[in-house]
Amino acid sequence: MTTFTELGLPEPVLRTLAEHGYVQPTPIQAQAIPVIVSGRDIIGAAQTGTGKTAAFALPTLALLGPAAGKPRCLVLVPTRELAVQVDENFQKYGKYLGTKTALLYGGVGYGAQTKALDDGVDVVIATPGRLLDLYEQKILNLSSIQMLILDEVDRMLDMGFIEDVTRIINYCPKQRQTLLFSATISDTIGRIAGWALQNPVTVDVRTGLGAADTVDHAIYPVDVFQKYDLLLALLQRSGYKSVIVFTRTKRDADRITEWIEGHGIPVATMHADRSQSERTAALAGFKSGKFAVMVATDIASRGLDIRGVTHVINYNVPEHAEDYVHRIGRTGRASAEGEAFTLYSPDEMHHLQQIELLLGRPIERRKLESFRYYSEPQLQPGGPKAANVSRKRNR
Ligand code: AMP
């Protein structure tokens, strides 16, 4: 079994790991850290929840060494929330190196970010738009960047950042080390890696597209007009400590928030129409336990590391099968047990079939005992495609 000491990490970093009770590297860490420490470029195929942030933050800190006060590492991430999380990781593990970070994202004023840059930083963590903005205003200089880390590249592309990311890569010095992480490696990502990385090593720790093994997931078939009632009944009976309810639309998120709050349960709400301060407050309240329930659109389904989420409830079947995997990945993190329930009405059959095809198996249908269903729920996976899925699995 590999230990952190064997991975070539310096003492000030090892000390922080011991303080956080990290005993053993996760697979992505065991494979990626030695490659990065040796100075090679890397393509890391890993989902969130695998310990991938530490897999790049620890060796980066090892390579940067003590604080030097000029930006030597740039981490590009798709969302503000992920930026905050990556920043927390660098600060946590860089504590004894005195590493200074700047967190640059849009939707807030420039003052604090400009000041952080003026004060001298080692690591810049940024979303693409604001980074370009500060670079083009000449507030940020990228000429001292030695390491470029592109995190959740698939998500950045989904969000339409390809041109921004391309420009930023071109603004960085050619002599640099580049680390690219993504949950999926599409052709486009392969092409970016082809010109932005030099002779990279690929490390792939994906277990198919399978959701975390520690998550128990189930489909609850129900008529669409009983979804609110079933959602409430599931919440009341699931024994949750911390639950995220995912909705497809912002409107649904607001309505469900009202519905749940109307039953005396405090709720945090996350979606793109909420202001940055509302989103920050919602996330902080949810993380601290002030709100045991968070209602969110997919903005919260990727990347966010929230400890102790015991349940994920999908109010709708996600339209994109991969979103299902990301959503249920919010629970069962770092080997904790979790449950993921999906409310399913017959009009969502197509989306469910896509998910089952992606997972390579049907998801168990369940009925909530003692809930007053208006019509008997269909517990057999229906439709010809679902039948194919079961046959495939039994082969
Ligand atoms: P990530 O995939 O980077 O979002 O990390 C998922 C969670 O696992 C975070 O809460 C990390 O703090 C935690 N973690 C990362 N590496 C380890 C490790 N080697 N041992 C225990 N927990 C870890």
Architecture overview:
By secondary structure, this protein is an alpha/beta fold. Helices cover 39% and strands 16% of the residues. It has two domains: 4-204, Rossmann fold (3-Layer(aba) Sandwich); 215-359, 3-Layer(aba) Sandwich (Rossmann fold). The longest helix is centred in the first third of the chain and has 14 residues, at 80-93. The chain has 15 helices and 14 strands. The site of adenosine monophosphate has 16 residues, from helix 3.
Summarize the structure.
With 395 residues, this protein is an alpha/beta fold. It contains 15 helices and 14 strands. The protein binds adenosine monophosphate.
Strand content: 15-25%
- Roughly how many Å apart are the termini? 34 Å
Strand order of the largest sheet: 3-4-2-5-6-1-7
Biggest sheet descriptor: 7 strands, parallel
The Cα radius of gyration reads 22 Å
Counting structural domains, the number is 2
Features:
395 residues, alpha/beta, Rossmann fold, 2 domains, seven-stranded parallel β-sheet, 15 helices, 39% helix, disordered C terminus, binds adenosine monophosphate
Secondary-structure blueprint:
Blueprint: H1 11-19, H2 27-37, E1 42-45, H3 52-64, E2 73-76, H4 80-93, E3 101-104, H5 111-118, E4 123-126, H6 128-136, E5 147-150, H7 153-158, H8 162-171, E6 177-182, H9 187-196, E7 201-204, E8 215-221, H10 227-237, E9 243-246, H11 250-261, E10 267-270, H12 276-288, E11 293-296, E12 311-314, H13 321-328, E13 338-344, H14 349-359, E14 364-365, H15 384-394
Helix pairs in contact: 2-3, 3-4, 6-8
